[in-house]
Amino acid sequence: MKQDWRGALVRRLLLLVGGCLLLGLISGEYAWALVIGLGTYLGWTLKQLLRLHRWLQEHQPGEAPPDGYGLWGEVFDSIYHLERRNERARGRLQAVIDRVQESTAALKDAVIMLDRDGNLEWWNRAAETLLGLQTPQDSGQSISNLVRDPRFKDYFERENYLEPLDLPSPVNSRVQLQIHVTQYGNSEHLMLVRDVTRLHQLEQMRKDFVANVSHELRTPLTVIAGYLETLLDNVEEVNPRWLRPLQQMQQQGARMQNLLNDLLLLARLEATDYPADRTPVAVDLLLLSIKNDAQALSGPRQHRISLEADPHLRLKGSEAELRSAFSNLVFNAVKYSPDEGRIDIRWWGDEQGAHLTVQDNGPGIEAKHLPRLTERFYRVDSSRASATGGTGLGLAIVKHVLLRHRARLDIASTLGQGSTFTCHFPSTQAVRRAK
Ligand code: ADP
């Protein structure tokens, strides 16, 4: 097609030049004839160009271009078809956008698009009901000005969105929201907010149930344990054959008491998000007393426990909670490492924050168990746990206490070579005392 037009153009020009030469032959003024011929052609071309320009500037959508002649006519038509094609594609895209917007607007979950600085760009209707965003006044506002909970500000600024954040709604504190943030494109944010009030209520019921049952079982168990102790003290008078069963009953009773205590502690930890206490704790002294307890627990098994702790580094938080978390880690190391095993406890600080490491040279844990280790009642090997009298709640308590102190637990272990449990506390939790 292109080739055709080029040929026609060349033919037309040759014809024009031929005509001019003929005119020159007749008039004897070749130069003038050529100037006049080419000038006329140039004038005509410019006129077509002007028509095209005017049409491009002034035409209404869908208005056909003016008629053109020759190659110009072809150019007019091509531009017109191109424009029609673009219009159709734009229409299709607009329809897709409209459908997406309609469907997201109808969603029960809130969808909010934020720019890289966290300013609102677009949101659906559910965002207005769940978060109280106002259309269009809030457009361009920073999301942390509208959702004022400090936990949200923290979460948003930390830019670690692997886990969702649960918060009460700023509009109605009885509505519980779950917030997911995803980064996309040029560090923009997509925020999804779900109403999880029902789930939250069920979860609360579960927590209350466990806490109530544990609490209710404590008194009868204390009575049974008391009688067992009295019976054991006087077993010779009752019947010596009862000695072993009574001893086993006492052992299992003690296990149940430990279990109930751990369940109650977990229930208490779950009741609030952060410990009420935020006074700096002298971790070195705390670890020293835990080390002494661990040495006593080890007793004749003679573990070699070393402690290296920075005395100037303190930690904001609850001493009782930290004691139970740290002692769980150290006592596990004693329980699960062989006699005379080495256990190293280290407490130190760096730019990232404060860290506690408990390292043992015990049996280690297979990699497939590591992600599930902090689940309640998760045991690597039930025979190992029953031999040590563990409740299966120790690491769940550690995880909860650390969560409440904004810290995380890292577990590294190689089967047969030992395990290393490290608690990482952010620098906001650490306090460095002048030397
Ligand atoms: P338990 O009360 O049974 O000790 P935990 O929650 O404290 O429960 O630990 C869960 C499981 O993790 C334990 O059953 C044990 O198999 C494993 N574990 C914990 N600490 C260690 C350790 N230092 N070395 C080897 N295994 C460990």
From TrEMBL:
Keywords: ATP-binding, Cell membrane, Kinase, Membrane, Nucleotide-binding, Phosphate transport, Phosphoprotein, Transferase, Transmembrane, Transmembrane helix, Transport, Two-component regulatory system. Residues 89-160 form the PAS domain. One of its GO terms (molecular function) is kinase activity. InterPro entries: BphY/WalK/GraS-like, HATPase_C_sf, HATPase_dom, His_kinase_dom, HisK_dim/P_dom, HisK_dim/P_sf, PAS, PAS-like_dom_sf. PROSITE patterns: HIS_KIN, PAS. Member of the two-component regulatory system PhoR/PhoB involved in the phosphate regulon genes expression. PhoR may function as a membrane-associated protein kinase that phosphorylates PhoB in response to environmental signals. This is Phosphate regulon sensor protein PhoR. The gene is phoR.
